């Protein structure tokens, strides 16, 4: 009775919805940082390559390590 494989489709979908939302939010946050690169270049005086690596590289590394 409590086996998720025996749940109705609506209940499976309802249980899976938060997984989809939080996965999407994690990817959205990483992609959202890219629009701030020009402002960060001006603010901190670094070049484009260094700023892009710092803004996108470390969060992606941490997101990948978090899976483990």
In short:
This protein is mainly α. The chain has three helices and no strands.
Q: What does the model show?
A:
- With 68 residues, this protein is mainly alpha-helical.
- The chain has a domain at 38-68.
- It is built from three helices and no strands.
- It has helices at 9-32, 37-44, 48-67.
- Helix 2 (37-44) crosses helix 3.
- The two termini are 32 Å apart.
- The model has no long low-confidence stretch (mean pLDDT 83).
Sequence-ordered SSE layout with sheet pairings:
Elements: H1 9-32, H2 37-44, H3 48-67
Helix pairs in contact: 2-3
Query: What is the N-to-C succession of helices and strands?
Result: HHH
What proportion strand? Answer: under 5%
Mean pLDDT: 83
Major sheet: none
Uncertain segments are none
Helix content: over 70%
How would you classify the helix and strand content by structural class?
mainly alpha
Overall radius of gyration: 19 Å
Distance between the termini: 32 Å
Q: Give the oligomeric state of the chains in this entry, treating copies of one chain as homo and distinct chains as hetero.
A: single chain
């Amino acid at each position: 009775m409590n086996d998720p494989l025996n749940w109705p489709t609506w209940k499976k979908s309802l249980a899976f919805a938060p997984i989809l939302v939080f996965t999407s939010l994690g990817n959205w946050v990483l992609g959202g940082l890219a629009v701030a690169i020009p402002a960060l270049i001006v603010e901190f005086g670094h070049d484009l390559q260094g700023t892009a690596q710092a803004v996108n590289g470390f969060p992606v590394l941490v997101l990948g390590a978090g899976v483990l």
